[in-house]
Amino acid sequence: MVIASVAVATSPSFAQSTIRSVDPGPRLLESYIAYIGPQDLYNSRGIRLTEPWQILRQDRANFHRYGKADRADQYDSFFADERNRAAKEVMLMRGTIQARAARDLVSGGAMILVEIYGRGSVGEYIDVSVMR
Description:
The protein has one domain. The protein is 29% helix and 24% strand. It has helices spanning 12-15, 52-64, 82-86, 88-94, 99-107; strands at residues 27-36, 96-97, 110-119, 122-131.
C-alpha cells in the first residue's frame, strides 16, 4: 500500500504573490510645431547659429523669453522653463534628427515638429522632424 503525502500550505505567505511594475520607458511628454524663421538663426548677440540644437534653443527662447514668435509657432510648457532649454543639446544628442532635417533647420524657413520624451516631468530626449 502506497500512501501519498501532500503538503498543504496554511501559511499566508504561500498565498501572496509579488507584483512588479515594469518601467515602460520614456513616454511622449509634449510636442509642438514651430517655424524656424530668420530671427531664430541668430543669438541675442547677433551671432549666426550653425548647429541645429542652437537654433532649436533660440527658437524657444524667442518664443518664451523674448515674445518673438513666428506665426506658426505653437506653445509648449516644457521649454518655457529656461533649465529645460539649456538641456536641449543633450536631449537632441540622445534623440533623433535626420541629416536633411538638420540641414533644413540650419538654413531656416523650415516647419518642424518637436517631440519631447521623458519620465514624469523630466525630459530625456527629443525627436525633430521637418514637415514638408
